[in-house]
Amino acid sequence: MRIAVVGATGLVGGEMLKVLAERQVQITELIPVASERSAGKKITFKGKEYTIVGMKAAIELKPDIAIFSAGGSISLEFAPQFAAVGTIVIDNSSAWRMSPEHKLVVPEINAGLLTKEDKIIANPNCSTIQMVVALAPLHKKYKIKRIVVSTYQSVSGSGIKAVNQMEAERKGEEAEPAYPHAIDKNVLPHIDVFLDNGYTKEEMKMVNETKKIMGDDNIQVTATAVRIPVVGGHSEAVNVEFEQDFDLKDVRDLMANTPGVVLQDDVQNNVYPMPLDAHGKDEVFVGRLRRDETQPNTLNMWIVADNLRKGAATNAVQIAEYLIDQFWSVKA
Ligand code: 2RA
């Protein structure tokens, strides 16, 4: 497979290269792509040196798959150009996520929607991915009516500038501000821009993407997305109301047996998911399962995942693996 990684010098792009190597995806040629400013620089992938190329050169190389993490405007401009030469694009930006012509995929949930005709495939937002991986099996069994979610999101979700700001603040040094307020020793109820309805784009991504991935517009979602000074992963406090009642033991068993989910729920021994533990891993970690005693058919849960991995790079690579397995592998 000739695979391009577009945005190879970014935080997520770097994670994509790491995940592609770790999961030993069948790559005959790697094409690292970045801005013209970075073209010509070298990267090392699986012990071999590669030269970063610009977008035009990458398109001319006609990769089989191009995994993008380069922002929405770059994707809107260049994803169609890659698709026009036969490349399948898996895009981590929000550009195509809510487009009715494009699929929004979490492989464990809806990879079956993909066909050979899909040339631009959207990777969901990190805070959405980890939530739906845990909730999809519960929706299937108990039918979700409403989700109230509060997130506690890693600074790495905002990019290297914000991580640098936090680390500089921690050392009492000056840094170029990525945020209008201090990040360290603070929490910021502000991720992405505010919209006319008073919610942020991040919060509305969770509302809209959840419906599309779960294939059910009746699911009501309300979200509060908060930035906190950690780097290992996003955490989410989720209150979910179902149409039907549930047995807590059945919920625990279901979580413990859901692909991609790890149940960490033994509060008597201080066992619960934390970003420090989730960092560098590909699973979604679920804990603090307990019935909401204030209303029927309602469950509280705590969901943690590495936002750069399952929240971005790993989910995108898993889509690529699915495509390779379904549409490229020579069936025995
Ligand atoms: C964030 N989910 O955490 C957004 C985009 N990565 O900033």
TrEMBL record:
Keywords per UniProt: Amino-acid biosynthesis, Diaminopimelate biosynthesis, Lysine biosynthesis, Methionine biosynthesis, NADP, Oxidoreductase, Threonine biosynthesis
Catalytic residues (UniProt): 126, 234
UniProt xrefs under SUPFAM superfamilies: Glyceraldehyde-3-phosphate dehydrogenase-like, C-terminal domain (SSF55347), NAD(P)-binding Rossmann-fold domains (SSF51735)
Catalytic activity, EC: 1.2.1.11
Source organism, top-level taxon: Bacteria
Pathway given in the UniProt record: Amino-acid biosynthesis; L-methionine biosynthesis via de novo pathway; L-homoserine from L-aspartate: step 2/3; Amino-acid biosynthesis; L-lysine biosynthesis via DAP pathway; (S)-tetrahydrodipicolinate from L-aspartate: step 2/4; Amino-acid biosynthesis; L-threonine biosynthesis; L-threonine from L-aspartate: step 2/5
GO molecular function, one term: protein dimerization activity
Domain Semialdehyde dehydrogenase NAD-binding: 2-117
Reactions accelerated catalytically: L-aspartate 4-semialdehyde + phosphate + NADP(+) = 4-phospho-L-aspartate + NADPH + H(+)
Annotated substrate binding sites: 153, 227
GO biological process: 'de novo' L-methionine biosynthetic process; diaminopimelate biosynthetic process; isoleucine biosynthetic process; lysine biosynthetic process via diaminopimelate; threonine biosynthetic process
Gene3D superfamilies the UniProt entry points to: Dihydrodipicolinate Reductase, domain 2, NAD(P)-binding Rossmann-like Domain
Similarity field: Belongs to the aspartate-semialdehyde dehydrogenase family.
Function statement: Catalyzes the NADPH-dependent formation of L-aspartate-semialdehyde (L-ASA) by the reductive dephosphorylation of L-aspartyl-4-phosphate.
Name this polypeptide is given: Aspartate-semialdehyde dehydrogenase
Taxonomic lineage of the native organism: Bacteria, Pseudomonadati, Bacteroidota, Cytophagia, Cytophagales
Gene encoding the protein: asd
